[in-house]
Amino acid sequence: MTSQLFAVCFDASRPLRLAQFWSGLLGWEMVDDPHDGVMLLPGDDTGFRIRFPPTREQKVSQNRMHFDLTSTSLEDQQRTVARALDLGARHIDIGQDPEDGHVVLADPDGNEFCVIEPGNTFLSDCGFIGALACDGSQEVGYFWSKALGWPLVWDQDQETAIRSPHGGPKITWGGPPLMPKTGKNRLHFDLAPPVHGDWQAEVERLLSLGATRIDTGQGEGSRVAMADPDGNEFCVLTPR
């Protein structure tokens, strides 16, 4: 038994505003978060929630993780972009080429995401959220494959990708060189330990795979703060 990906967390300067944006774009239900802030429940087979814990930290650099949203046609891509802009997104330039088919946007908190052009076979059966695209090493792809029990579905030229056996989005890592890490990542994972397992034993298992425990300065409370081999923060939720 392994941990489950419980949620992708967006540290948010305006949690409710950001939750409303992503709820409107994805069509997911917005509910109170029993841990902190507000949360979205998936309306499809995505398999994880999206949480919006509040933060006072300002965004200062490009995120190491972003959503790739899929399209079924050029018209569908244009509709998604238009809906995102109406909800408060904006176009941004992160160095993409003018001839690239995907559209790069930022949500109201400045978090990057892409609307992928139709015909992308790699994401063709992954749903509207096609991928969580990450800046990361081959080693960290291997780590998360073992941590979540998700098989590798891509492993070439130091690029890796994993996917839940139940379907849903892929998680991809683009290989080196990695972007410099400046402060705490705004996007991170919350893991839920096995339902009938010992959360302390699960923390030890993750440590044996290459994770480290970190001190966030806020105490543990209902979660244990950890970092993967690339230094990306994540949390293991514990019983209250």
UniProtKB/TrEMBL annotation:
PROSITE patterns: VOC. Transmembrane segments: none annotated. It comes from the Bacteria. Residues 3-118, 125-239 form the VOC domain. This is VOC family protein. It comes from Streptomyces macrosporus.
